[in-house]
């Protein structure tokens, strides 16, 4: 990669992405190959927002590489509660760790934090901004299931605030992929992201209903529509219901359709789909470990 | 109407800066960029919506005893891309040039996205990339095309 940090997927090239995915595949095939390689290295975890999968998979990845983590813990138990700035917090923890992973509710937080540190910093989610490591594991999963070229991908749900969606869309623009964005009008992809995708020459279409495009899709990436985005409970129930999928929905889909979800899901995907060949979301979550191992190995100076 | 006619509307200045060919209606925003609100005894003359050959209607701002910094000119260029900056010394125009849009502006505009990290109490200076038709926050990516003058006020 061209940068010392991983802040967005916007500037990742196809070669950057394929390099990490290839490395992750090697690790996946031989999980013990890198055991102990980064013995003594420490990864600083700064999660200013709750996380289960991202945080635990970074922790697992670092330990599988022989390193360990130092964790800021919850915001409630840290100096952030006393009013410490993010800039100060990262400068302090930089002194304890060889690389940092930051999740923060504000957009641009990881970029700003990266300007205050010399160690590699990885964005694990900045508000409604970006989540590039999720994207890499999404692409890994997609490549395993359907390849990454000559593909039709539907991305559905909360496209406005969904950082996984923004990062995925940017990264997919490197590949021969038709991107279909399916959402209620109020949760459409931010105009900034659409502008960038057009600038990059991506094939982008927006739809209000899944049935307009379902039968053409190779991959359907579902995201959660959050209750708090709607002032009115009835409005939420009405809209969220239109973007849930169950076995009946899939009658119009191709048998090869791969269904992905960054998780956690609430009721966007009926559990009956879990046992079908369509479901790739648990595999997707598992892929967080090899992909993050490949990334950390690279950032900690592993490819030499 | 000839250009001489509107020169008559706003008197000449002895020393200072004349900002000409400002898009009609933007003069007060130019003053806002310059931090001029009349409380510091600045001598300022303004012409608003006067006929212009180059623009259908233009504003003109004359500020006595002040030569603008490059940073100020950069920001003015965002709301008045056709403006010319005339430096006047002893009634003579000693330099005249059109504004050039910079690649980015720092510390002058406030990001309108309330969830942007630059609007938090962090030691960070706002930074905007200048696009052909607007500005874009370097941190959160928000694009502003209309109402750029409303973002002035972070300093």
Shape of chain B: globular
CATH superfamily of the largest domain in chain B, by name, is Aspartate carbamoyltransferase regulatory subunit, N-terminal domain
Helix count from the secondary structure assignment of chain A? 10
Indicate the proportion of strand residues of chain B: 25-35%
Tell me which CATH architecture of the largest domain in chain A applies here.
3-Layer(aba) Sandwich
Compute the gyration radius of chain A: what is it? 19 Å
Q: Which class of secondary structure composition applies to the elements of chain A?
A: alpha/beta
End-to-end C-alpha gap of chain A: 14 Å
Structure keywords:
heterodimer; A: 304 residues; Rossmann fold; B: alpha+beta; Alpha-Beta Plaits; 33% strand; globular
List the SSEs and their pairings:
The complex is a heterodimer of chains A (304) and B (155).
Chain A: H1 14-29, E1 42-47, H2 53-64, E2 68-71, H3 86-94, E3 99-104, H4 109-114, E4 121-126, H5 132-146, E5 151-156, H6 163-172, E6 177-182, H7 191-199, E7 203-207, E8 219-222, H8 233-242, E9 258-260, H9 281-286, H10 288-299
Parallel strand pairs in A: 1-2, 1-3, 3-4, 5-6, 5-8, 6-7, 8-9
Helix pairs in contact in A: 1-5, 1-10, 2-10, 5-6, 5-10
Chain B: H1 3-9, E1 16-23, H2 27-33, E2 44-51, E3 57-64, H3 70-79, E4 84-89, E5 92-98, E6 104-106, E7 127-131, E8 134-137, E9 143-144
Antiparallel strand pairs in B: 1-3, 1-4, 2-3, 4-5, 6-7, 7-8, 8-9
Concise summary:
The complex is a heterodimer of chains A (304) and B (155). Chain A is α/β, with parallel strands linked by helices.
Describe the protein.
The complex is a heterodimer of chains A (304) and B (155). Chain A is α/β, with parallel strands linked by helices. Chain A has two domains: 128 residues, Rossmann fold, CATH 3.40.50; 154 residues, Rossmann fold, CATH 3.40.50.1370. Chain A contains ten helices and nine strands. In chain A, the strands form two sheets. In chain A, strands 7-6-5-8-9 form a five-stranded parallel beta sheet, with helices on one face. In chain A, strands 2-1-3-4 form a four-stranded parallel beta sheet, with helices on both faces. In chain A, strand 6, helix 7 and strand 7 form a beta-alpha-beta unit. Chain A starts with 13 loop residues before the first helix and ends in a 5-residue tail after the last helix. The model of chain A has no long low-confidence stretch (mean pLDDT 94). With 155 residues, chain B is α+β, with helices and mostly antiparallel strands. Chain B folds into two domains: 96 residues, Aspartate carbamoyltransferase regulatory subunit, N-terminal domain (Alpha-Beta Plaits, 2-Layer Sandwich); 48 residues, Roll (SH3 type barrels), CATH 2.30.30. Helix content of chain B is 15%, strand content 33%. The longest helix of chain B has 10 residues. Chain B is globular, with a radius of gyration of 16 Å.
């Amino acid at each position: 990669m061209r940068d010392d940090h991983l802040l967005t997927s916007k500037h990742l090239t196809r070669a950057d992405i394929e390099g990490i995915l290839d490395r992750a595949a090697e690790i996946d095939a031989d999980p013990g190959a890198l055991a102990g390689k980064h013995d003594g290295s420490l990864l600083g975890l700064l999660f200013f927002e709750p996380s289960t999968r991202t945080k635990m998979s970074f922790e697992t990845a670092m330990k599988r590489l022989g390193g360990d983590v130092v964790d800021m813990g919850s915001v409630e138990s840290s100096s952030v509660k006393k009013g410490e700035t993010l800039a100060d917090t990262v400068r302090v923890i930089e002194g304890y760790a060889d690389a940092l992973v930051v999740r923060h509710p504000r957009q641009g937080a990881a970029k700003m934090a990266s300007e205050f540190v010399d160690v590699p910093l990885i964005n694990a989610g900045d508000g409604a901004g970006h989540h590039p490591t999720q994207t890499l594991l999404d692409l890994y999963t997609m490549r395993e299931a359907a390849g990454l070229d000559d593909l039709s991908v539907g991305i559905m749900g909360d496209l406005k605030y969904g950082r996984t969606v923004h990062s995925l869309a940017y990264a997919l623009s490197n590949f021969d992929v038709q991107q279909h964005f399916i959402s209620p009008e109020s949760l459409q992809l931010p105009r900034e992201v659409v502008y960038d995708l057009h600038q990059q020459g991506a094939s982008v279409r927006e739809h209000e209903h899944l049935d307009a495009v379902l039968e053409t899709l190779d991959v359907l990436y579902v995201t959660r529509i959050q209750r708090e985005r709607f002032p009115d409970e009835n409005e939420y129930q009405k809209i969220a219901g239109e973007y849930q999928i169950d076995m009946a929905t899939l009658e119009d889909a191709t048998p090869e359709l791969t269904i992905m979800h960054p998780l956690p899901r609430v009721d966007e995907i009926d559990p009956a789909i879990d046992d079908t060949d369509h479901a790739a979301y648990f595999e997707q979550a598992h892929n967080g470990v090899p992909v993050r191992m490949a990334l950390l190995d690279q950032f900690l100076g592993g490819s030499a | 109407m000839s250009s001489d006619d509107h020169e008559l509307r706003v008197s000449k200045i002895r020393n200072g800066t004349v900002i000409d060919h400002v898009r009609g209606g933007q003069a007060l925003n130019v003053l806002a960029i310059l931090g001029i609100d009349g409380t510091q005894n600045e001598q300022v003359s303004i012409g608003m919506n006067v006929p212009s050959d180059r623009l259908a209607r233009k504003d003109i701002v004359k500020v006595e005893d002040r030569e603008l910094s490059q940073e100020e000119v950069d920001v003015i260029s965002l709301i008045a891309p056709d403006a010319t900056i005339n430096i006047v010394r002893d009634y003579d125009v000693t330099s005249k040039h059109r504004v050039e849009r910079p690649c980015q502006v720092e510390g002058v505009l406030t990001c309108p996205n309330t969830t942007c990290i630059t609007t938090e109490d962090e030691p960070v200076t706002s930074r905007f990339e200048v696009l052909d038709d607007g500005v874009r926050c370097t941190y959160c990516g928000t694009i502003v095309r209309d109402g750029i003058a409303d973002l002035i006020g972070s300093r």
